[in-house]
Design brief:
alpha/beta, Rossmann fold, seven-stranded parallel beta sheet, 14 strands, globular
Amino acid sequence: MKILVTGGAGYIGSHTCLALLNEGYEVVIVDNLCNSSIESIKRIEILANQSVIFYNADVRDMVSLENVFHENSIEAVIHFAGLKSVNESINIPINYYENNVGSSIALFNIMSKFNCKILVFSSSATVYGDTAMSPIKEGSQLSANNPYGRSKLMIEEILQDLYVSDDTWHIGRLRYFNPVGAHKSGMIGEDPNGIPNNLFPYISQVAVGRRKKVNIFGGDYDTHDGTGVRDYIHVMDIADGHIKALEALNIKSQLLTINLGTGNGYSVLDVIKAFESASGLKIPYKIVGRREGDIASCYADTALASSSINWNASYNLESMCKDAWKWQTLNPNGYQKIG
């Protein structure tokens, strides 16, 4: 089965491409490399001992996208392509709507034209906003409160309308919680542009000496140690979730909406302690004021993933930290050129 992976050179996309190749799928990647690296694709091919077809193209470019479908017998699509920083989205919202929503509409149009109707969409737990009570179920109220989250929610709603209009589509909407970690080889991992927005890469960069300390935003939440609690999930578990979703969608047409999380919440201090254990290093940190919009606790209810696609997270916090640290130590500057 030949799978088109948009944004396949990115963090979650690269790990999912590797998992697909290891499961015997053929992979075609479309990525404009605006927040990813061609090096990740080279390393995927080394790890899988096989090649992928790669197009350096923007998914919004319908001419290029149509060419991809003309040249390959695409049977299903996993759609990762998009901008992904909450903070950046607040500063440049139009870019986020144009890129994330615009690319999705272009993709769905081309898929329709070529009668390719199996799609797994990379959504986010940000669609729940900051009002849902944990554990968060798929039926919880949706109230995205930033342009990034709203762009994901808009695409989810477009897909629902698409399925209502034509129920021969096979659509999966996967809502990730907090993806972390790296492939066990240390050859591919998270390589954010600029200052990391997420906790794990920031801790990793502090540990490797690229940054001085971790700022913990809020130490007075109603949690076991006062710091915010989140559901961190290993990127390889997320990759496996896409394969399980693809298998379920391949069986019958449906609209699946599923949380991908562990169902466990870990505080910022829990993560720092686990990372210290994995690295053997002391991680300096400072507790500062809360950020507007942050909540005390957010973690997933994962029962539906287990019952509908037979998926459960398998990596614990220790494994997440060990794999993240291995990636960072082998690649202290990310994908930027070793030798």
